[in-house]
Amino acid sequence: MNRHVLSSRASLVALCCAIAAPAMAQTTSGAGDGIAVEELVVTARKREERLRDVPVAATALSFEDIRDQGGLANAQALLSNSPGVNFANTSNALTSDVSIRGSGTSRATNAEAGVGLFRNGAYIGGGNVAGRTFSGIDLFDIQRVEVLRGVQGGLGGRNASGGSINVVTARPEYEYGGYLLGTVGMHERREIEGAVNIPINEYFSTRLSVAYGKKPEGFYHLYVIDEYADATEREFFRGQLSFKNGPFTANLMLERANERVPGLVYQVVTFPNANFPLGNFSDKYDTPWNHPSQGKQRLSNLEFTTSTDLGWATLSTIVNLRDRHGQNQYDRDAFSREFYDALSAIPGRVSPAGLTAIRNADYNQGGDQIDHARISYYGAHILGETNGFDWLVGGEWYLLNDTTSNILGKSPTPASPNFGTITRGKLRFSSYAVYGSLGYDLTDQINLSGDLRFTNDNKDFLSRQFLFVTNTPVTTAALNPTASSNDNNVSYTATISYKPTSLMLFYAKIGSAYRAGGFNGNLGDPRQPIAPPPSFDNETVTGYEVGFKGNLAPNIYVTAAGYTNRFKNLVIQGDNGCRANNPACPVQATSFAFNAGPATLWGIEVEATMRAQLAGGALRVTVGGSRQGGHVRGGIYDGFKQPQQPKWTQTFTVNYRREIVDDVSGYINVNGNARQGGVQEANQTTLLHDYVLFNVRTGVTWRQYDLAAFVNNAGQENYLVFHAPSATGDVRRYNLPRTWGVQLRYEW
């Protein structure tokens, strides 16, 4: 490890230990006492309570925190604020994966997320493309975010083996107001967004939110077709109607989104061989692909929520209907005839045998994943307090109907006179659950609580392969699977907590969760060295955790947790061994999910927030860190590390604001995260690459106006997001370089 990384790790960990560490977002109580600390009210246990009173490791971001960062552009920006979290980046936001405490490491497969993805309390995950992360509109015009770390199966339900994330949308207010935000930046980035509250009367109010943006250029230029793989677009529309009358409130939300996100792109390096005596490689950014690389998404959403105060209890309901079309286009062979023609013109770069291979090669091997996911979620719960017992009872039904098409295109030849294949799949996933929780204060300082949940999952799946264009069925049985499963699961959480003072909380807990199994819809290429398995079983986990949260001083708030998670049938990702530089199977690899066996993962997390008055201004510093480890404990992978689980993670945020003159204040925000150690894939030979990333934002506020300049990846960190080395060459994918821009915000 180089000196830069060592010093970065040492300084960050030292800062974590010196300040101690939080799991929350906080707001100052007033301008006069800027060092006082208050906490967000969250719904981590399906009821409103102060985060400091909830016995769970968590990070919450308030509206102010999100605004200070200039908004949350994607899930990676969201998760950079929480220790123990890793974003498994595939370059394409639609196929990337959220990972907490080593879970959810099956990106780019049909596997479910290992983290529960919730929006306003409704589960929104599921689906082949974009089913393991949030959509852009989910992170637009939001009130707060709650990231809960650790097993959350008792109340969180399916797929919350590593934790859960709940994004809370900004709701209509009963007074006129809103905001308008404009952004300009490099690569011709132009964006505008805004929201307005329009009260109708004392009973009804509306909130309208819109966003439009476009960035037609980028870093990754596909020069053959003159397109940019990291160009972006977005069109978001949201309308809400809120009603309140005494003990009853209701909210109706309708949404529509069209979005283009950066596509898959990578560099191919071929080592010297008989065809290419000096080797062969494409440029990191000037890419010789002749097929588009982009992700597209079209989403419609309807949400209806109610809350009724019954006097003796509160009843809450939610209906969420989500219709999502996703598309992921890419170049399967990563080269073009134009690239090889230019290479052949350089003396000594191509041998006579290589020229023959170039002339006979097919450069029209494109890929296109298309997904239509229709998600319905219906939930209701009632909570109250009786004879000193806090109780909650609820139920939910989740239904996913997912239709997929996977096109693997090619040029026809005499030996194979077709244009490739198209594999069409259908998945119906119906899941219902009933759950409850009970809490009781044994004394004024000691509380016992428990959650219990029963879930039934029913899955039906089929996949059929056809010749592209002609729709002639491919009759190979292995390429046309039909499968179904019916599983029951009981998950629980038991917690004891102790409050020695009103500002400190110790807790210990044991809990369980599961991650739904499934089916691999893409069974790869007939030339593949490794055949994907047709299906994989449920993953289950039992977690043990102890923790602390509280004030070490009036202006320092700390949380810390230690945990051990014991898995059965750990679900991880592998691939079929194909590569653009693999002569036996010269196409992009097909990823698949499989069960590695039992595993034990462990970790220690610490996070701290400190506030202070400095040079006439208000300073807030939040730092966090984690140390993670563990391995598979059986089967052929015995002793292997969990992929996509960094050994170390760090997060840091610094906010400083100071009045310059009357009505004018200046501020600076530095936000970042880092990781070191860990392995990228199950084969253990490919390592996760270390990084320290940070963004800087500075500006001035005058009355209702805010003008800011920002730089993302301010340190110009350059690291490998993905690396697939082999005996014949490498496939490499990099993070985005530094970007910059200016924002103007107006609030009223």
Q: What are the main properties of this structure?
A:
7% helix, 22-stranded antiparallel β-barrel, mainly beta, 748 residues, disordered N terminus, 6 helices, five-stranded mixed sheet, Maltoporin, Chain A, globular, single chain, 55% strand
Could you please describe the fold and organization of this structure?
The chain has 748 residues and is mostly beta strands. It contains six helices and 42 strands. Strand 6 and strand 7 (97-100) form a beta hairpin. The radius of gyration is 26 Å and the shape is globular. The protein starts with a helix and ends with a strand.
Query: How many domains?
Result: 1
Q: Mean pLDDT across all residues, rounded?
A: 88
Please report the number of helical segments: 6
Coarse shape: globular
Assign a percent range to the helix content: under 10%
Task: Lay out the secondary structure.
Blueprint lengths: L2 H17 L6 E2 L10 E2 L1 E2 L6 E2 L6 E5 L1 H6 L6 H5 L5 E4 L8 E4 L15 E4 L2 E2 L18 E8 L3 H4 L6 E7 L7 E9 L3 E11 L4 E12 L5 E2 L4 E2 L3 E14 L2 E15 L4 E4 L9 E2 L4 E2 L6 E16 L3 E19 L5 H8 L7 H9 L5 E21 L2 E21 L10 E22 L4 E22 L14 E17 L5 E12 L2 E2 L15 E2 L2 E15 L2 E20 L15 E24 L2 E16 L15 E14 L2 E13 L14 E12 L2 E8 L7 E6 L3 E6 L4 E9 L1
Parallel strand pairs: 8-11, 15-21
Antiparallel strand pairs: 1-2, 3-4, 5-10, 6-7, 8-9, 10-11, 12-13, 12-42, 13-14, 14-17, 15-16, 17-18, 18-22, 19-20, 19-41, 22-23, 23-24, 24-25, 25-26, 26-27, 27-28, 28-29, 29-32, 30-31, 32-33, 33-34, 34-35, 35-36, 36-37, 37-38, 38-39, 39-42, 40-41
